[in-house]
Amino acid sequence: MAYSEKVIDHYENPRNVGSFDKNDSSVVTGMVGAPACGDVMKLQLRIDDNGIIEDAKFKTYGCGSAIASSSLVTEWVKGKTVEEAGAIKNTDIAEELALPPVKIHCSILAEDAIKAALDEYKTKQSK
Ligand code: FES
């Protein structure tokens, strides 16, 4: 299967790989898995007091498209509000990376990771 140039670029030079200190109270984590393939994605966001995403990091154990999708979303969410980040759709990711139909679930994983991280944010806010 041929990967698009953008996927290969993110796969070979992934942006923002790593982790934040999970004891940092401004950090939230979204951890999701794709049952179909067993791939796992961890996305962390550092969100300031105004709900702006200051920084993002990821670790993905999975295929090239999953790594590219998570790398891309770390770039996209930086500087966005939590509302804007929550509006990112897997179809935006799939389109940007020109993912073929069999790799759409990889982009869904990235959308789910954002949602999972923002869920933790909302839970923290309501406390
Ligand atoms: Fe499952 Fe890509 S093959 S996340």
From TrEMBL:
What do the Gene Ontology cellular component annotations say?
A: cytoplasm
Q: Which Gene3D superfamilies match?
A: 3.90.1010.10
The UniProt function text for this chain reads:
A scaffold on which IscS assembles Fe-S clusters. It is likely that Fe-S cluster coordination is flexible as the role of this complex is to build and then hand off Fe-S clusters.
Q: Name one GO biological process term.
A: iron-sulfur cluster assembly
InterPro entries for this protein: ISCU (IPR011339), NIF_FeS_clus_asmbl_NifU_N (IPR002871)
Q: Name one Pfam family in it.
A: NifU_N
Q: Which GO terms describe its molecular function?
A: iron ion binding; iron-sulfur cluster binding
For this chain, the family text in UniProt reads:
Belongs to the NifU family.
SUPFAM superfamilies per the UniProt record, alphabetical: SufE/NifU
Q: What is this protein called?
A: Iron-sulfur cluster assembly scaffold protein IscU
Domain called NIF system FeS cluster assembly NifU N-terminal: residue spans: 2-126
